[in-house]
């Protein structure tokens, strides 16, 4: 059996959840990039629209209800340390309800809001691309 991201480039999707100038980040426990802070997201299932995958993953990982999202950027992650390769569509949402909570403690160790000028380190490649796009959006 072949595995996306490992045996061939996988398709991922993520959501930059933004509220009052702060970005929602979670700390990963598993590869790719275990120990890194990342936006919520994951693999796009076969025949699932990428925007729907971003909302689904965000809701599964944070417990939030996502009402809407818009495209933010494209991210390609070639993670040599984990021998993984992903191409991901990243979306942005400030339209949600609920309070974030750690709903997948087997995958994530921490979750919280962080100002763009004071982000925890290290950031995943996925999150780095989202942050660059958010900063660019803020200055345009």
Textual characterization of the structure:
The chain has 140 residues and is α+β, with helices and mostly antiparallel strands. It is built from 2 helices and 7 strands, in the order ββββαβββα. Strands 1, 2, 3, 4, 5, 6 and 7 form a 7-stranded mixed sheet that branches. The termini are far apart. The model has no long low-confidence stretch (mean pLDDT 97).
Ordered list of secondary-structure elements with their pairings:
Elements: E1 10-19, E2 22-28, E3 37-38, E4 40-43, H1 50-62, E5 65-79, E6 84-97, E7 108-115, H2 125-139
Descriptive tags:
single chain; 140 residues; alpha+beta; seven-stranded mixed β-sheet; 7 strands
């Amino acid at each position: 059996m072949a595995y996306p991201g490992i045996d061939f480039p996988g398709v991922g999707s993520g959501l930059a959840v933004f509220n009052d100038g702060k970005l929602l980040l979670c700390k990963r426990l598993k590869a790719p990039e275990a120990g890194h802070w990342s936006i919520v997201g994951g693999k796009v299932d076969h025949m699932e629209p990428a925007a729907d995958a971003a909302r689904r993953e965000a809701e599964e990982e944070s417990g939030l209800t996502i009402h809407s999202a818009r495209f933010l950027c494209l991210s390609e992650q070639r993670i040599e340390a984990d021998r993984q390769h992903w191409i991901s569509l990243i979306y942005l949402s400030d339209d949600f309800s609920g309070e974030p909570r750690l709903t997948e403690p087997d995958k994530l160790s921490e979750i919280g809001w962080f100002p763009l000028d004071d982000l925890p380190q290290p950031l995943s490649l996925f999150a780095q691309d989202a942050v660059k796009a958010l900063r660019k959006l803020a200055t345009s």
